[in-house]
Amino acid sequence: MCRFVLSPLVFIALSAAACAPPAPAPADLAAEEQAVRAISMQWLEFENAKDMAAIAALFTEDGTLIREHLEPVVGHAAIEAHLTRDQAENPSGVAHWATDRVEVTASADLAVEYGTWSETGLGPNGTEQDQGRYVTVYRKVNGAWKVAADISLSTKPETTSSPST
Q1: Which of 31, 41, 120, 124 has the most CB atoms lying inside 10 A of its own CB?
Q2: Strand order from edge to edge, sheet including 144-154
Q3: What is the Cα–Cα distance from 69 to 148, expressed in whole angstroms?
Q4: pLDDT tens-digit profile of 36-75?
Q5: Could you give the 3-state DSSP secondary structure of residue 14?
Q6: What residues does each domain of the chain span?
Q7: For residue 119, what are the contacts with CB-CB under 8 A and spacing of at least 6?
Q8: SS3 at position 149
Q9: How confident is the model at residue 82 (pLDDT cuts 50, 70, 90)?
């Protein structure tokens, strides 16, 4: 008798499993990494073309830009305004950066890029330069990678003035 009761239960369980939606295919993490690297290079192109609106559009709505000695800059409008001011203060500036590595989560909805940067042509006369390191966090929004946060720090040694004698 027990056998006849279990048979319908097993049939129901197997039928339910067969009707379940298939598990999603695992993410192609190498392809996701390449997509993040491509966005980083697109940002560099926008930077050197002085297209600050296009750079701001790469960020999430609540994206954050963090720079040394400044409060965080949050949101498209604030990021564009900050970058526009920075460009006006450094009209001859030319940026370059190189990605050291990109880490993508197994769920392929978050990625972190690490790299180095340098800028030449800084200052009102275009004679200054700087270099440093950065970390950029990307988040997938509606299937597209967006910058959630970008943190950049100078590694150029600070110049110290000699005491007057």
Answers
A1: 120
A2: 73-74, 59-67, 144-154, 128-141, 110-122, 94-104
A3: 20
A4: 999 999 999 999 999 999 999 999 999 999 999 999 999 9
A5: helix
A6: 27-154
A7: 90, 93, 94, 95, 96, 129, 130, 131
A8: strand
A9: very high
Give the residue from 148, 146, 135 showing the smallest Cα distance to 101: 135
The type of residue at 107 is S
* Tokens coding 151: 């943190």
Nearest Cα residue to 26 out of 104, 99, 93: 104
* Long-range CB pairs of 54-63, under 8 A, 24+ apart, other chains included: 55/79, 55/80, 55/83, 56/80, 56/83, 58/146, 58/147, 59/146, 59/147, 59/148, 59/150, 60/139, 60/141, 60/146, 60/147, 60/148, 62/148, 63/146, 63/147, 63/148, 63/149, 63/150
Q: Has this prediction a pTM greater than 0.90?
A: no
Token output for 13: 């369980």
Q: Which residues pair with 153 in a beta bridge?
A: 133
Work out the burial of residue 41: count CB atoms within 10 Å of its CB; fewer than 13 is exposed, 13-18 middle, 19 or more buried: exposed
